[in-house]
Structure formats: C-alpha cells, structure tokens
Amino acid sequence: MSFFNSFKIDKKCNSLGNKYIIILFLFFIKTNYLIAQNITISGEIHDKATGELLSNVSIIQNNSEVGTISNSYGFFSIQVSRGKQILTASHIGYNDLAITISVESDTVINFSIEKKYFVIDEVIIKSNTNKNRNSIAGLKLINGKDLINLPNFMGEPDVLKFIQNLPGINTSHQGTTNLSVKGGSNDQNLIVIDEAPIYNPSHALNFFSILNSDAVREIKVVSGYFPAKYGGRLSSIIEIMTREGSFEKTEASIGLGLISSRILLSTPLLKNKVAFIFSSRVCYAGAVLNSFGNIGKAIGFYSLKNFESNKELRFYDYSSKINFKLTEKTRVYLSTFSSKDHLYFESLINSAMLNWRNSTSTLRINNIISSKMFNNTTFYLSNYHYSYLMNDETINFEWKSKISEYGFKSDFDYYLTANSHMSFGAGSYLTVFYPGEVLPIDSISHVNRIRLDRKQSVLSFLYINNSFLIRKIFGVDLGLRVCDFFNLGPATNYLYDSNLSLVVDSFKVESGSIFGKSYRIEPRIGLTVHVSSMQDLKFSYTINNQFLHYISNSTIGLPTDIWLPSNRYLKPQKANQLSFESITNFKKGYNISFEMYFKNLVNVSDFIDNSFIFLNKYIETQIRSGNGNSYGFSLALEKNYGKFKSNCSYFFSKTRYKIENINLGRPYSPSWDIRNNFNISVNYNLGDKLELSSLFKITSGGFITMPIGFFNFYGSTFSVFTKRNGYQLPNYIRWDFQVRKGIYSSRNMIKGEMVFSIINVLGRKNVFSTFSKQSGISLNEIRIFYIYLHTIVPSFTLNISLK
Amino acid sequence: MNIQLCFKGLCITVLPLLFGCVEEFEYKIPNGEKRVCIVGRLSVGNGPFYIRLTEVISKIPRYDNDFSINLFPAIKNAKIFISDDFGNTDTLVPSIEVPGFKYKPDKGYYRIDLGGNDTFFTYDVNYPIYEKGFYKTKNLSVVDNRRYYLVVDVEGKRYEANEFVNSLPKIDSVEFLLKTSPKDGSESYIPKIFFTENGNVNNFYLVQFHDDLFYDLYRQNYIWEFYIIDKRISNKFDQGFIVDLTKNLNSNTKFFYGDSIQIILSSITPDAFNYFSSLLTQFDTDGGAYSSTPSSPPTNIKGGALGYFLATARAEFHGKVE
C-alpha cells in the first residue's frame, strides 16, 4: 500500500454515515412539514447606549410560548400570527423591553435595550424562560462585563481564569490560564477571537489571558452539545467576540496601572455608517519587578539579598475593528488582533529568552438575505510566531517556529418556522506549520543552521444543523458535520519500523501534491425535554475529531511548544461524548443544574520516556498513541438575580489514558486530571453602589511524576522514576475577597469605582509545581522543592471617569 | 465623551513575585522492590576493568559529610561474566584495587594525582573498597569494532547488557578559550577539541576530564565531568568543539591557566548517547511545570537494573592549560 493511501477511510464510520444521511433526510421532511403560513418579524438587537449589536437576547411573544434568541451577530427572526402582538426582549444585565405592534405582513423591527447600571432590581423569574428553552446542553455564555464580578489576580480581569470557575471546567495548574474542559487537555480547546483561531491564548507563561477584557463583548463556551457549526477540537470551543464600536458616540478610556496600562477608543467614523474601535494593553511587569527588587535589596530584605535586576517581562496586545454598515441588511467588519510577549526570567526558564507573537485578521460580511435567512461569511488569517534565544558561552543560537492558518467559512441561519431553526455552512482552511529552525546568533556560534521541513494541511468542512420543537415539549437538535482532511506537499515523509523506533524509508512529495487524505463524519444529536415549566432535561451525543496535535512534553506548556498536523502515524484524535444535563429553575432566581458526561477518546498521544523532541525530524518516533476515557458530573446551585447572587458548584471528573509503551502500557492519569473541584462565589450588592464579592475554591491536586528511588552513576546521584504521573499533589485551597465601591461627585462630573481585592486570604502556599534537583552542596545530594505562586495578594484599583 | 483614568495596583501586589516562592517539599517515597544499579566500562586495551554493583535507595539522599561511596549499599556475592563476539569470556572477582587509588593497610585508600604523586587525602581505612560493590576482570582484553556482553547474576535474578566498541577517534589538538565571568569578571579557560573521526563514522561522542571511573566517589562533588557531542547539532570539525564543564554547581571549579588537564574522548553508541543525554537532562530538567515529564535513564541493561554498561575506544589528551 502506498503512503498516499495511508489513511484508511473508516468503513464503519462510512456505513454509519449513510444512516446519518437517512436520519437527516427524515428530519428535513419533518421540519418542512412543520412550516406554516405565519408572519415573520425580524431585525437586529442593539445596546441602546453604544448601538452595538447584542447576541443571545431572548425575544418572546408574550401571549404564547413562542420565542427565539438573537444569533451571534445580533439578528433575530420570529414567526407570529397576524394581529396585535407584544414582543419582549430580555437579556441578562439589561432592562426588559416590551414592544406592542400590529402586524399584517413580514415586518422588520430593531430593538435597542438599555443596560442596568449599579441598580440591581429584584426580578421574578417567569416560568419556563426562553433562555433555557432555546439553549443547548453544556452551553455557557459570559458577558464581557461579568468578568469584574469575581475577585481578580492583581486587579486584572481575565477571560480564561473566569471560565475556570464554571461547572465542568478545571485548570491543570491553578494560577495559569490553562483549561481542562470535561477532563480534556488544554490543547483540546479551540479559542477563537472574532472567528480566527488563537494558538497561544496566554501572556507571561500562561499567567494572564491574551485579551484585554475591555475589548470583550461576549464569550461563548461550547462543551456539551456541539452545534454542527463547531468542530476541530475534542473538548470545547471558546468563542470570544470583541466589541464592535458605536455608530452613535465616541467613547475613550485610558487606564494607567502599576504593571500594565490600557487604552480604549470607540468612535463613529461616519455617523450611522462606519464605526471604529481600538483597544490596547501594555504590560511592563519586568521593569516594575526589577525596581521593587532593587529597592527591597537596598532596604535590606533578607530574601532579596541576591536579587538580580535582569528580569524581562513585558507584553502588549491590541485589537481593532472597523464596522461598515453598507446597507440596512449588509455589514462588513474588518478586525485585527495582535499580541507580543517577551520574557527572560532565569529562575523559570533556564536563562533562555522567549518571544512569542499572535496576530489575526478577520474580514466578516453579515448579510440579512431575507426575513428568515441570515448569512455570515468570514475570511481570516492567524499567525503564531515563537522563538527563544539561547545566549550561552558555548551554544548561542536562536530557535524559532511558526504556524499560520488561512481560512474562510460561510454560515447561514434559516428560521423555518416559529419553532424550527436551521443552520448550515461550509468552510476550509490551510494550515502551514514550521516545526522549527535553529540559527547561529553569530559567526563563532558552534551550532549548525538546522531547519525542519514545513508541513501543510487543509481541512474542509460542511455542516447542517436543525433545531426544532415537537409539541412544545421536546427540543431536538440534529447536526451533521463532514470533515475532509489532507496533507499538502512539498514534504519529506518517513516510514518507520513497526516499533516506531527506526526509519526504514523516506520519500519526497512534490509541491501541491495531496497525501494523507482522510474524512470524518461527525453526527451531533441533542434532545431537550421540557419536563415542566420549571425543569429541562438535556441529552446530547457528539463526535469530534481533532486533526492537530500539540507537541509539548512540559506539563503546563511553553510558548515554544509546537503543533503538527495528522499524518500516517499521528492519526486524528477522536472523542465520542455523551452528556446529560438537568436544569431546574425556582422562584427568586434560584436554579439547580446537574450535568454528567462520559467521553471516549481515541488516538490521544503522549511522549515516550526520555523523548527527544528538539528539532527532531523523526518526531513520530517519540510519540505513542492510544485510547482514553473521561467521565464526571457537576452539580451547581445558582442564584442569578437580586442583590445577592451566588454560585456554588462541585465538579468531579476522572480521566485515564492507556497508551502502549507508556507507563508500561498501564492506564494512567494525565497531569490535568483534577478529580474534585468545589467553588462557591457570592456577590452581594449592599446598596449605595457598594458591592462585595468572594470566591472560595478547593480542588484536588494534579498528577505528576516523582522519583521513587535514587542511584549513583560516576559520582552523581540521579533519580529513578516509574509510574507516569503516579503522584498526586496536595489539594489546592484559595479564598478571595473583593469590595467594589462606586464613587461620584456631587454634580456627577466624576464617576467611577474603587476596587479592593485580596487574593488567597488564607495565605496558603498552594503547590504550583514540584521539582527535584542535585543540591548546590554536592551532586550526591538530591533536594525536592515545591513552587508556590503567591500567598496573600492584596490589590487596589481606582477607576475614574470624567464627563 | 468620557475620559476614564484608572490607577491600578499598589506596590504590594508585585512584592509577592519578588520573594522566593520555593520551599522544600515534604515527600515520602513509597517503599518499592529492591533494585540494582550496575555501573561499568570497558575501554580498548588490557584490563582490569571494573564493574560496580549497588542498591537503589528509596530515601532522599543527603550529603551529611559522607562520601557518595557510602550512600549506596554495595551488592556483594554477585556473579559477573563478560564475553565478546569471539567467545572470549571472563569471570569477574571482587576487587580490592581501583585505578586511581592505592591501598596501604595503615592509610586505607589514597588518591594519585595526574603527576603520579600521592594526594593528601586518605579514605576509609577500615572499609576496603571491595565492600563497596566493586568487581574486576581477570584477563579480558578489549578491541574496537567488537561487541561485548555483560551478564550479572544477583540473588537469583539475571541482568544482561551488550555494547559495541566503535573505532577510535583521533584528537588532533586542544585549544583553550579565555572565558570571562559576566558576574564577577573572573577569567578561566574552556577547552576546545579538534578531532577527526576514524573508521566507522559516528555521530556521538563522550568527553570526560578524568581517567578513572570512581574518582568522584570519594569527594564532595560540585561537578559532573562528562560532556556529550551530538554531531547532528554541531559538526564544525574544522572549527573544533567547545567542551564546557556543563554541570558545574560551584563557580570555583574551573580550568585556570597552568592547570594540568586530561581529556578523554570516546566514540559512543546511540544508546550510550541517549543514556548520558538523559542523565545530563536530569540536571536541567527537574520535572517542574515547565520541564518535560521526567523519566528514568534508558539503560542498556535488561532485567530491571539501572546504570549502564559502557564499552568504548578512548583517545586521550594530557597537557596544561596555556
């Protein structure tokens, strides 16, 4: 069999695919049968103050249980009967808006709803809110402004750290932005900003998220039922939409901080036609650390006696968007995002100097084709450059790598009937991987110039998804996503022996030639049972494939880790996930949710012992693939409304991998397998613009590999390790506290707020990581240490707005 | 238009990052089965050659002013055989002699320096070295381009290893580069080796700075004097190879002008390279969050023992730093 046929088409999958197509055909018949001769009301929903479009706003027809929600681009379409109708638009954090209209034919109405500021009204939850009826299993929506509601590390609201507190989501290492969603690894989450993927969503070695929270409009976390629109990763899709800018008025803000400063400018360039928004953040923590370190050293702090002011830690990010309203039905968005990090921190990264940079550009065209159909077409490119500089006396070189992705997709929303919504679309993207290159820094460097061949892959997809209600009790979501993947020449391919240890042959593939072709069919099924006006039960089954492989053998991940496409040996990873969710609403804004999941993982990979990945063109010899599974449940009690809001959740999960030749072929826990996670957060509005919030968190420790013995080899002691990740770290416990106080002058000329927070009130030294090392006294001696990130961290923020 | 001014963060927010956030970890090693460490090396030439057998310990080793030779219990009463492709076999016997040491009943063991003189220090008057797990060959001679086989029987268990002896590389010359410390401006020298490959071309080389295997057992070590060269990464033969004292825990351990120096260069197998690479990695890769998952070095000894059975041809340089 030639290499070009290396990917066998999954016959089982193919036969299943035929079944799916039959099912799909049947439900199309069903939904077409349901189409009735109603009148369509469609339009857009805006924020009244800024004019920006709002997604996920509920539109309910008051005299019936008919409702819809605005899509990601602020468009809605609802079918009503003729005559006088009352439509109510409601959105969390906004005042409800009810409009009474008399309709005789298809009508366009645009809603403008108003934000609630400080005053938090008691809201009595109406039974069977549209929010639950239309939402899918495992979907979590976060408004950008919610990020400040929890205490934040060093006063910096953080998108990914906020997400870590949601039920079903953990982090492999507390303090970092890494996410483990339903037992998955960090690389199994696709993070997109304005529809362009981000390959490293963190600043400063994963301590801060990449995006300035000022620029965030909304975050959507998809992890249960995956609508067919979403794919490409096994665990979750995290969609971050940035603000769009106002057509109405100019807004500017400048934030000056001790370790970072930020700016935001939003202005109409052409009133009601063109809006522009720009936001940026600059961090100069390294310079601040050096200054304070020097001061502490001069004062005589014992622990700073050996302080060296050579730390370099700085980053910036910016996002910009131009929003053209070409016609009432057509909008064009041009957005860019860029971030850059520079880091030299001797104690963390062995004296190497790290640089990494993300940049994305997105061109998006929104078109209201008819009152029932909406289209969004996106073209994007995403680049991730990363390098490190080793400037040793003997080996001075620069290592650099890069990944680029060029893609497009077109998504359609079609509102068939009052209770049926279809979405379909297609897309394709080319990913170019530059696995690594070493360049000597100067002429006396004793390092050869080495460059690994670039790799290219193309993934195309086609999807259709239909959501409909049956007898107002059963909400059904059916989706089908078909992925076609291939590698693209030029390439040099290696064939290995059966043990994947020796190269037995190699051959070149010409530029433009296709090889390693494979396709996957991903059915998605979701069923929501509206048990009563208070309770919904949701079931879902999804299949996801991931054609990208994250090559990192560090437990947290470094900016220098690399990504590779699937090939003959690195087969696409696959997850079959079953999930169940129960949501019960009670009066006064209480709800209880219970969610459980089981996930079967195929072709997950890990490194062999003593792997050598640095510039290894035979990287496949260092990786083994196998299977895994993950299961768990979460229980959450939430109070969303009123002066007192609270969220209490417990999440249990267990993830095991079983890979031949790793851990002697026995099952083991990956490092991110956090078994127990308990969170409780409260937010209490005391009136007079005073708000208290607190977060208590306790989780099990992650799993690491620790020595189980020591031996001597020519005068130095070395460690013996056996089980992969055989040691569980101690529990992580943290309690945070925050006070926000609104301030204003007598004439309202000055408005703002003071925020005081204490992170880790208990001062607990939570274990971030452990390491063992030959001691500085003798090579015979081994010492085992642990790192904790911080004890108590108080911070103070003062925001002042001048009118 | 709103203008927003934000003054954020007090100085106390950054202070925690300045203080050392590293403390010793209370870690109790679970009891495991007894394991054996086998360390041995054959070199082209006549013996005797030495193999040392010790136990793997399951407590965290502390220096406590004791030499490493006493930290690891010796394994006695082992049967050890070494043979080659041509059927030559030697049975090793417990050893009282080790290269680099001399023994006198009243002095115990004492070192011989590079000039052939007795050193000042003496060791272990009452505890002969053969109680430290040493065994030596009786009549084995080693030649290059030949494979050697090791068999060790201990307490009913058998451990086996084999290793191929590559051709001898030739050291053409050694230069010394002046190195100035960026911290204190002190000057020291780094050797730079010019060598040519001989016979079968090999990609991997081992450099060491002392002749005897067990020199480091009797001192407080700051430095592990091995260095590996991977020709795949650096193959500028005409420019020479810099070999630094890479795993140096003490900045005072350097080569200075006038120092006597011995450099031993060996062509090693890929397995041996991987083994030494793994050991060197343990110095840098500590298993922390930003390091790779640690693992035991990939020994060539089958049967569950640790250590390595090395067999090489060695080119040597003796001289002074000039």
Short description:
Chain A is mainly β and 803 residues long. Helix content of chain A is 7%, strand content 55%. In chain A, the strands form eleven sheets. Chain A has a 23-stranded antiparallel beta sheet that branches.
Count of runs of 4 or more consecutive helical residues of chain A: 5
Average predicted local confidence, pLDDT of chain A: 83
Q: What integer value in Å does the Rg of chain B equal?
A: 23 Å
Radius of gyration of chain A: 27 Å
What does this entry look like structurally?
With 803 residues, chain A is mainly beta. Chain A is 7% helix and 55% strand. Chain A has 5 helices and 50 strands. Chain A has a 23-stranded antiparallel β-sheet that branches. In chain A, strand 40 and strand 41 (690-699) form a beta hairpin. Chain B has 322 residues and is mainly β. Chain B contains 3 helices and 25 strands. Chain B has helices at residues 15-18, 68-71, 270-284; strands spanning 3-8, 22-24, 36-43, 45-46, 50-55, 79-84, 89-91, 93-94, 101-104, 108-112, 118-123, 134-136, 141-142, 147-154, 157-164, 170-180, 187-196, 204-208, 223-224, 226-230, 241-242, 247-248, 260-267, 306-312, 314-320. In chain B, the strands form 7 sheets. In chain B, strands 8-12-5-3-24 form a 5-stranded mixed β-sheet, with no helix packed on it. Chain B has a 4-stranded antiparallel β-sheet with strand order 7-6-14-15, with no helix packed on it. In chain B, strands 20-18-23-25 form a 4-stranded antiparallel β-sheet, covered by helices on one side. In chain B, strand 14 (147-154) and strand 15 (157-164) form a beta hairpin. The longest helix of chain B is centred in the last third of the chain and has 15 residues, at 270-284. In chain B, 37% of the residues are buried. The model of chain B is unreliable at 1-20 (pLDDT under 50). At the A-B interface, strand 18, helix 4, strand 43, strand 44 and strand 48 of A face strand 1, helix 1, strand 2, strand 19 and strand 21 of B. Strand 49 (782-787) of chain A pairs antiparallel with strand 2 of chain B, so a sheet runs across the interface.
